[in-house]
TrEMBL record:
Residues 251-457 form the Xylanolytic transcriptional activator regulatory domain. Transmembrane segments: none annotated. It comes from Coleophoma cylindrospora. This is Xylanolytic transcriptional activator regulatory domain-containing protein. InterPro entries: XnlR_reg_dom. Residues 1-17 have a biased composition (Polar residues). Residues 136-145 have a biased composition (Basic and acidic residues). PANTHER family: TRANSCRIPTION FACTOR WITH C2H2 AND ZN(2)-CYS(6) DNA BINDING DOMAIN (EUROFUNG), TRANSCRIPTION FACTOR WITH C2H2 AND ZN(2)-CYS(6) DNA BINDING DOMAIN (EUROFUNG)-RELATED-RELATED.
Length: 742
């Protein structure tokens, strides 16, 4: 039974998760009945468009903006000498409805850790001695059993894949056979996502046979595919794909010119694979994962048979869809292959010159006097040129998400994208040549067309330029891409900080300057996001995440969580203990709080995928800060008069900025915490109540999926379970200063 679409599709990125308690360290296949995943996700949501988020959230970066603007009342010397250098040391008769994007395959246990052994790596120092490099107590040393448990935890994580003789290509092709009689009981589609709107996106039996031919062309699969999905089911899945794509900011395929008779069957197979993973019925998404494997081999065959196919747009789009599915599939083999196979497509596109400026879709403009034939020809040429742009932008965002999530170097930098900014979204979504022409004419009347649209580099260097052409470009996609461009600079900064020794004052001074300038630029850009994106909470949350990661090294966060084992966790604890006493840490937790604030305002059922990861990173940051500073806050009844006065000011991190916030950031005065809802009211939870803090983060996940009797998406549920396990650690149970009702 296909779940109803009460988890609406969102323009979120690919998602990663795992199902709690399942070991996927070695899977050779995904046979029916092998895994027991939830087959329904019945969360009711509203229209999942960023455009519908009309909550005004500018305060998150207003502090930095005040300082940059020279507001004397701000009194937050982010960029002055208070910087602590010590830290720098379908027509179908089957009415399928679909669940959220990537719901059922979200099995990526990105932080599946042995929490008992982690606790031994960072015993909280309650002695009052806060020396940055003071060794941990001897009782914190790991026993062989503890080391073994930590190593086992890392083996279960997605960063380590140990293939077995049972792991090989095309081992899941039996999943291509569906018993469609078992999925005949279908529920109505969500009113917000009506796939009937895409009923023109359908294939015929001849094209179905061509798709089946792609599967047989791989070899070694004939005996494993005794049957293939019916035409009705395939058409429904294709319509699901395009319905879900319509909600994405960086959607990949041009719906208006979709013509199966002129499309490569490999691309159609990729579309079916991607559409399948939007449906929570296990037999369907398993089929999607099996088809993803077919696409990878089929595209490779096309490249080998004819090298000119490395420049073919449809082939590249098929492979891009394959990477999207595989990287976040949750199965280590497919994830590793997808991660490693991102390099070839990047090289192919780069060497084709598509990163350059020779393809300019804006030069192919329609005229009101164009004949129908000429207009159709112009539209298709424009759509192809625009598709190349959006393919590259999609690949760039995909690579950035992979870099942040997997903590690996980015493969594409924004500086490489030298083509003009993409055209307005309504032009891209036009269903016909005449609609495209009329919309283009409307845009020209509203704002005189600039002779040459700016490039991404010109826009990032002068944001005023982007605002001046906002009616002539896809401002929301441009803003999203530009924002992702900052990650490459953040990554380089953290690498440089590790590369140069602390004793090298010249380089350290350069790093301080680089950090200050980067933070200022990112803060200024973030103030433009509400107007450029119609106040997209997803984009605001991403900007706050990037500012947080600039001040809290994500590698240290991962090492502290046990990524590299016990010794590395201890070293990370030393570094983070020193970090917790710097202005850097206070700025980091401020932006972490703003991430959580934006997450509260995200449209229902949209905290999934990369958005859920952002919430996790933010909660991890404030949790670590609370652990490292616990001894600074004695329990009630043990406060001196001065300490009581010091602890009387509440600094609410997930609220708008205030004078008290500015004082805390500059002088460390006050008690940082988060405001949570409880029994219909509000309460202040200090960060040193670390277990309460993690519980608040879990509540954010739950509140975004308000149908309590239904399960959360696997990624969200998995991250929530991890936060719950961290919450239960002995080191986290330090809530001596209880919450206070506001």
């Amino acid at each position: 039974m296909v779940a109803s679409n009460r988890y609406p599709q969102t323009p979120s990125s690919t998602e990663v998760s795992n199902v709690d308690g399942m070991d996927f360290s070695h899977h050779a296949s995904l046979q029916d009945g092998q895994y027991d995943y939830p087959s329904s996700g019945h969360q009711t949501g509203v229209q999942p468009s960023d455009i519908d988020d009309h909550v005004h959230v500018v305060d998150g970066s207003s502090i930095a903006h005040d300082v940059v603007a020279g507001d004397a009342s701000a009194s937050i010397p982010f960029y002055d000498n208070t910087f602590d250098m010590s830290y720098l040391s379908g027509n179908s008769n089957q009415d399928f409805s679909f669940a959220s994007a990537n719901f059922s395959q979200d099995l990526f246990n990105i932080w599946d850790l042995d929490l008992d052994s982690i606790e031994m790596a960072y015993q909280v120092d309650t002695s009052g001695n806060h020396g940055g490099n003071k060794p941990l107590d001897s009782d914190a040393r790991s026993t062989p059993r503890e080391v073994s448990k930590r190593h086992a935890a890392f083996e279960r994580s997605p960063w380590l894949y140990k293939p077995t003789s049972k792991d090989h290509a095309l081992n899941d092709q039996a999943n291509l056979t569906l018993d469609e009689d078992s999925i005949t009981e279908l529920t109505p589609s969500s009113p917000e996502t009506n796939i009937a709107e895409f009923s023109f996106c359908c294939i015929n039996s001849k094209i179905r046979d061509q798709m089946l031919g792609v599967i047989f062309s791989i070899g070694k699969t004939v005996d494993k595919v005794p049957s293939f999905p019916s035409l009705a089911l395939l058409n429904t899945i294709i319509q699901v794909f395009f319905a879900q794509e319509s909600f994405k900011t960086d959607n990949l395929l041009h719906t208006g010119t979709f013509d199966p008779s002129n499309m490569l069957p490999q691309l159609l197979v990729a579309v079916v694979a991607a559409g399948s993973v939007h449906i929570s019925e296990p037999v369907i998404w398993k089929m999607g994962l099996a088809l993803q494997e077919v696409v990878r081999h089929a595209v490779a065959n096309l490249w080998e048979q004819n090298n000119s196919n490395t420049r073919n747009l449809q082939v590249l789009q098929a492979f891009m869809i394959c990477l999207d599915i595989g990287l976040w599939s949750g199965f280590k083999r497919q994830m590793e292959i997808a991660e490693s196979f991102a390099q070839p497509i990047i090289v192919m596109i780069r060497r084709s010159g598509a990163f350059g400026s020779q393809r300019n879709s804006s030069a192919i403009g329609p005229e009101m006097t164009d004949s129908a034939m000429l207009l159709e020809s112009k539209w298709k040429k424009w759509a192809e040129a625009e598709s190349y742009k959006r393919l590259i932008i999609h690949l760039f965002i995909h690579d950035t998400h992979a870099s942040i999530g997997m903590q690996k170097p980015p493969l594409i930098y924004l500086t490489e994208l030298k083509f003009a900014l993409p055209a307005p979204q309504d032009l891209w979504l036009a269903r016909s040549a005449t609609e495209w022409r009329d919309l283009d004419h409307k845009h020209r009347q509203q704002s005189p067309t600039t002779s040459v649209l700016p490039t991404f580099m010109e826009a990032i260097q002068n944001v005023d330029l982007l605002e001046s052409v906002a009616q002539q470009v896809d401002a929301q996609l441009c803003t999203l891409a530009l924002l992702h461009g900052y990650w490459g600079q953040i990554w380089t900064y953290h690498q440089s900080k590790r590369f140069y020794p602390e004793s090298n004052s010249t380089h350290r001074l350069c790093l301080i300057t680089e950090h200050r300038e980067l933070y200022r630029d990112l803060s200024e850009f973030s103030t433009r996001i509400p107007s450029l994106t119609r106040n997209s909470q997803i984009t605001i949350m991403l900007s706050e995440l990037l500012m947080m990661l600039l001040h809290a090294d994500p590698d240290d966060l991962q090492r502290f969580a046990g990524k590299y084992g016990e010794e590395e966790a201890k070293q990370a604890a030393f570094a983070l203990r020193a970090w917790s006493k710097t202005p850097e840490s206070r700025t980091a937790i401020w932006h972490a709080g703003q991430v959580l604030r934006a997450a509260r305002r995200v449209t229902t059922a949209r905290l999934r995928g990369f958005n859920a990861i952002a919430v996790y990173y933010a909660s991890l940051t404030v949790w670590i800060y609370g652990l490292m500073t616990t001894s600074l806050f004695p329990p009630p009844g043990h406060l001196s008069a001065s300490a009581a006065k010091f602890n009387s000011t509440h600094i609410t991190l997930n609220d708008a900025a205030s004078p008290q916030t500015r004082l805390f950031l500059s002088s460390n005065e006050g008690v940082p915490g988060l405001v949570a809802t409880r029994d219909g009211g509000l309460e202040f939870v200090p960060l040193h109540a670390t277990d309460r803090v993690l519980r608040l983060a879990r509540d954010i996940y739950r509140s975004n999926f308000p149908v309590l009797e239904e399960p959360l998406p696997p990624l969200v549920d998995n991250l929530g379970n991890l936060l719950r396990d961290l919450e239960s650690l002995p080191g986290s149970k330090v809530s001596r200063a209880g919450s206070e009702t506001i």
